[in-house]
Sequence to fold (416 residues):
Amino acid sequence: MRPGTRTPAHTTGHLAELVCSNSLGSDALNRAPGLLKAELRRLGSLLLELAEAHRVPAGSALAVDREGFAAAVTARLESTPRITLLREEATAIPEEGVVILASGPLTSPALAQALAAWTGTGALYFYDAIAPIVDSGTLNFDIAFRASRYARGDQEEGDYINCPMNKEEYQRFVEALLSAERIPLRDFERDDPHFFEACLPVEVLAQRGPDALAFGPLRPVGLRDPRTGRRPYAVIQLRQDNAAGDLYNLVGFQTNLRYGEQERVFRLIPGLENAVFVRHGAMHRNTYINAPRLLQPTLQFKARDTLFCAGQLAGLEGYAGNIMGGWLAGVNAARVLQGQTPLELPPTTMAGALMAYITQADPEGFQPMKANFGLLPPLEEVLRGKRARGEAHAHRALADLEEWITALDALPRPPE
Ligand SMILES: Cc1cc2nc3c(=O)[nH]c(=O)nc-3n(C[C@H](O)[C@H](O)[C@H](O)COP(=O)(O)OP(=O)(O)OC[C@H]3O[C@@H](n4cnc5c(N)ncnc54)[C@H](O)[C@@H]3O)c2cc1C
Fold:
């Protein structure tokens, strides 16, 4: 719809305009975003090919000259004879034909409204408040303990990981939280009246009073610290975030602190001293659907096989993940038009694991996800060291992808 109808963040009329960072993330094969890019390359992604053609030096990351990249994508699509580019705002979901919705985190209000009406209440979010996710293998279980609130002593090990705090630890934490550096809000976010009502960042809640957190998300009721047998002053609860059970999110910890500050302040929580953050908390306007409730792993809506969703709107986070979603939705839309079965990517690939996560995660409190190794099924052998595990994941993923491609009729080619 750009440049005629603008969004609050894009500044040009180009397709594939990167609104913030010009980095598509790590390109190292033993890192999750790097594996995702290797898979995209193997699948013949046009966007990745053009990103590489406009690469700028950025260590092991794939960063692009954003102007050159977006201009090249625009030129390629404009010059492809079988693509007609209509620069218009879509205000309704087309009822006929095969359709892909990929209007991104800044979906125009009219389309967002139409989508909300179509998907029903509670299935479309307007503001994103993401809590950090940590690798549970890096928690200190000499302090952290498993329990569910109000569980009886004879009940099995609880669902939550709990990090208890005494009064001094709590006060020190709140003090650090209040003085930590935040990411400045952009004008359009600051002006929005629903921003803080919909989802309060933990540092904003803490401002309401010294014990606001202890009576809010950090309330200790129904929990006893097995080390002392007593109720702690405050408790941070961590909730399982993936089926494999190695990722946990910090309940109620949506935040707008700078990433480095999140690590510094949240590691003050007893039990999280050495926690590895696989995703940081973040806040910005973000429109995304409740994919686990609404989508199939082929990116078709459950309620309509000819309607697809891709990009951030589908609950994928990060440029590379969104390129992947676009690839799959595009290929599957073409397959549906040709009477072929839509594709599901192998679950051991980063691409397949991402699609599985967004369509099978707990719909309650669903939040967008980016590539990370925690999404992949566990490796058969136990390996020490992140690097070795990353390499083994990549080796298995690319081998399985190769096998999957061989079994396919033909891999679609991008336009020349
Ligand atoms: C402020 C901000 C900063 C971000 N920074 C980063 C970052 O640094 N790194 C990162 O990996 N991700 C970042 N993201 C997330 C980023 O948006 C996605 O990773 C990626 O751009 C999403 O791709 P997409 O194709 O889903 O959406 P977009 O790239 O936003 O593309 C959607 C397109 O749809 C158009 N559109 C919207 N509504 C309509 C309509 N009704 N009719 C027709 N067209 C419409 C928009 O104009 C836009 O061109 C950021 C998001 C925001 C909002």
